[in-house]
């Protein structure tokens, strides 16, 4: 598993590493506005990694246009790389997704995706780093 050379230990280090918008989403569990992130409309082949620690999370082959305005994927590279938690904020119950290695908030999981999984991993663009395939 790829990772950054040094993962921040305290919140001030996270603020410095991520910057204001990424800090708000990744550490404060915020959400970017739909259709505002640079990766929702990304169509190149490659891999999507956690912005906090560099863990590879999604392959471009599992990305699809859900119409939601956020990058959406139907499957993970490895289920153990993402932690699931119940999120009862905003008057609804959802499944929150966090990077299992560094705890960065990624987005939410919904059961309205395409087959074969039927899942939609709805992820904030700012929570991800896209690495394009070289060949």
UniProtKB/TrEMBL annotation:
Q: Where does the record place the catalytic residues?
A: 122
Spell out the InterPro entries in the cross-references: Met_Sox_Rdtase_MsrB, Met_Sox_Rdtase_MsrB_dom, Mss4-like_sf
Q: Which GO terms describe its cellular component?
A: cytoplasm
Question: GO: which molecular function terms?
Answer: peptide-methionine (R)-S-oxide reductase activity; zinc ion binding
Whether Oxidoreductase counts among this entry's keywords is: yes
Specify which residues bind Zn(2+) according to the UniProt entry for this protein. 50, 53, 99, 102
- Name its co-factor(s): Zn(2+)
Enzyme Commission numbers on file: 1.8.4.12
Asked if the Swiss-Prot or TrEMBL record annotates the protein with the keyword Zinc, the reply is yes
Checking SUPFAM superfamilies in the record gives: Mss4-like (SSF51316)
Alphabetically sorted, this entry's keywords are:
Metal-binding, Oxidoreductase, Zinc
One of the protein's GO biological processes? response to oxidative stress
The catalytic activity, as recorded, is: L-methionyl-[protein] + [thioredoxin]-disulfide + H2O = L-methionyl-(R)-S-oxide-[protein] + [thioredoxin]-dithiol
| Cofactor: how bound | Binds 1 zinc ion per subunit. The zinc ion is important for the structural integrity of the protein.
Locate the MsrB domain: which residues? 11-133
The record's annotation in NCBIfam families points to: peptide-methionine (R)-S-oxide reductase MsrB
Q: Which HAMAP family match?
A: MsrB (MF_01400)
The similarity annotation says:
Belongs to the MsrB Met sulfoxide reductase family.
Q: What is this protein called?
A: Peptide methionine sulfoxide reductase MsrB
Q: Which organism is it from?
A: Sediminispirochaeta smaragdinae (strain DSM 11293 / JCM 15392 / SEBR 4228)
Gene name on record? msrB
């Amino acid at each position: 598993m790829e990772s950054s050379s040094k993962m921040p230990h305290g919140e001030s280090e996270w603020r410095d590493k991520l910057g204001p918008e990424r800090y708000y989403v990744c550490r404060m569990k915020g959400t970017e506005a739909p259709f505002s992130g640079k990766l929702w409309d990304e169509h190149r082949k490659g891999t999507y990694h956690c912005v906090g620690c560099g863990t590879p999370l999604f392959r471009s082959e599992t990305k699809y246009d859900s119409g939601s305005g956020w990058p959406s994927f139907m499957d993970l590279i490895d289920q153990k790389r993402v932690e699931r938690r119940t999120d009862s904020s905003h008057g609804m119950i959802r499944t929150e997704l966090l990077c299992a290695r560094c705890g960065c908030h990624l987005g939410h999981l919904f059961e309205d995706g395409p087959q074969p999984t039927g899942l939609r991993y709805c992820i904030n663009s700012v929570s991800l780093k896209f690495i394009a395939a070289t060949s």
